[in-house]
Each structure stands twice: as C-alpha cells, then as structure tokens.
C-alpha cells in the first residue's frame, strides 16, 4: 500500500506553491475559480484534497463559503499558514470516508487528484462520499487528465510528458492495472540542496471518461456537462484533459 503521507510530505508541501506560474497562473486559476463559483450557485462548497488552498482560498475570496478535506499533515499545515480554520474549516482524513458536513451545493476535486486513489473501489467510494456531502441536486466537479496511451511507442511503457529547462516529467504505464507512475526530475543550478538532480515519484490510477461516468451513476449522479478545460471549450477525442460536472439525481448512499 502506498503511504500518501510520505508522498505529500513537508518537501512536497514546501515546493507545491508556484505563485503566478503553472497551475497558479491567473490564466489557469481565474477560469477555475469563476466556474466553480458559478456552479456553487450561492451555496456552500467543499473541496476534496484541498491541499495548500490553491483553489479554495480565491474561491472563498470570491464570496463562496468553502470547507475542505485533506489527508496530508504537511499540506494542511501549509494551508494554515495562509488562512485560519474560522475562514476555511478543514477535516483531516481520507476523501473516501471523511465528512466535512452535509447540505453542500458543490463538491469538487481538481487537478487530477482523484487518480491518487489507486483502486477502482476507492474511486467509487470517493463519488459516494461526495454524494453524502451534497444537498439534492448538488454538483460534483472533477478535473482529470485523459490517458495518452496512443502516444506510447510500440514495445515501450513510458512517455515524456514535459521536457523543459530544469524539469523533465516521464510517465511509466502499467496498462493491466491502469496505473501510472509520474517521475518528476528537477535538475540544474537552481536546486537549493546543491545536488545536480532530484527525482520525485507519484503513483496514479488513470480513469477513462466513460468509466468515470459509470462511477458517478453508481453514486446517484448523472453527467451534466463535460468540457476540455475550465474555459468550457469543447471536449473532443483529442482533448488531453476534461472538467466533468455531475449532478446528484438519486438518493445519496449511506
């Protein structure tokens, strides 16, 4: 069993935030927050795997009442350096079972984080837990990448996803179990510890969009919308990711 506390440790929490760049770029974060605020429709929102508050804090600044669930001690400690419990209450625990309350209008899980759950059963339980948090008609929003198996060379099980100065991302696939390990290689003079290179690894279980929709149905949801990105561009066969919006139409599982 993978110890997520060891993956999302103090080093990960310390290096997670990149203000103004990457997933913190206003061009990325702005549409994310604007769309979630609209989908909350004036109600309360709960973020599963709230992390350091990348989305939750600006969403709260936009006037949405936000709560969260977070497993990692280190990520939660980093969040608490930015905002107090009175502003964004967070329950520490597993997003498949932990409860931050009920009656929310919106639950959301962004930036591929559902793939941190490494079995199909855990991923289904995440949907069921989201349903338990929501009021009737509430929405569950998931942002997730599309597996790029078509880019695997014949006879190989790895792809280079990012290659840029100082950083290399290589994904290795186990197609039998739908597992991916992302290898993050950082190198160059900017490393603070004096090493020539550092490598970090994170395991994932990838999910096809159709499989995700079936998980939703098992928990009482139906697909309301699917976009290629937060700008609501059309999702196509060539899309590298998707934002899927599910609405709770059946009774929440107990």
TrEMBL record:
<feature type="domain" description="Methyltransferase">
    <location>
        <begin position="46"/>
        <end position="138"/>
    </location>
</feature>
<protein>
    <submittedName>
        <fullName>Class I SAM-dependent methyltransferase</fullName>
        <ecNumber>2.1.1.-</ecNumber>
    </submittedName>
</protein>
<keyword id="KW-0808">Transferase</keyword>
<dbReference type="GO" id="GO:0008168">
    <property type="term" value="F:methyltransferase activity"/>
</dbReference>
<keyword id="KW-0489">Methyltransferase</keyword>
<dbReference type="InterPro" id="IPR029063">
    <property type="entry name" value="SAM-dependent_MTases_sf"/>
</dbReference>
<dbReference type="Pfam" id="PF13649">
    <property type="entry name" value="Methyltransf_25"/>
</dbReference>
<dbReference type="InterPro" id="IPR041698">
    <property type="entry name" value="Methyltransf_25"/>
</dbReference>
<dbReference type="GO" id="GO:0032259">
    <property type="term" value="P:methylation"/>
</dbReference>
């Amino acid at each position: 069993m993978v110890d997520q506390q060891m993956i999302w440790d103090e080093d990960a929490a310390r290096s997670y935030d990149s203000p103004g760049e990457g997933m913190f770029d206003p061009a990325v974060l702005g549409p994310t927050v604007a769309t979630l605020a609209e989908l909350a429709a004036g109600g309360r929102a709960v973020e599963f795997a709230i992390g350091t508050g990348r989305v939750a804090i600006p969403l709260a600044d936009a006037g949405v009442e936000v709560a969260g669930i977070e497993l990692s001690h280190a990520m939660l400690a980093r969040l608490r350096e930015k905002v107090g419990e009175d502003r964004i209450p967070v329950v520490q625990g597993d997003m498949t079972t932990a409860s931050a309350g009920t009656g929310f209008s919106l639950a959301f899980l962004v930036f591929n984080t559902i793939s941190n759950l490494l079995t199909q059963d855990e991923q289904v339980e995440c949907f069921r837990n989201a349903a338990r948090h929501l009021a009737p008609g509430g929405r569950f929003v998931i942002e997730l990448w599309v597996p790029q198996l078509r880019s695997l060379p014949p006879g190989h099980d790895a792809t280079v996803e990012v290659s840029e100065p100082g950083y290399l991302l290589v994904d290795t696939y186990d197609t039998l179990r739908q597992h991916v390990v992302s290898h993050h290689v950082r190198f160059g003079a900017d490393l603070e510890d004096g090493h020539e290179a550092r490598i970090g690894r994170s395991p994932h279980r990838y999910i096809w969009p159709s499989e995700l929709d079936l998980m939703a149905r098992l928990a009482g949801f139906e697909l309301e919308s699917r976009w290629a990105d937060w700008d609501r561009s059309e999702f196509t066969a060539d899309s590298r990711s998707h934002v899927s919006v599910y609405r709770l139409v059946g009774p929440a599982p107990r």
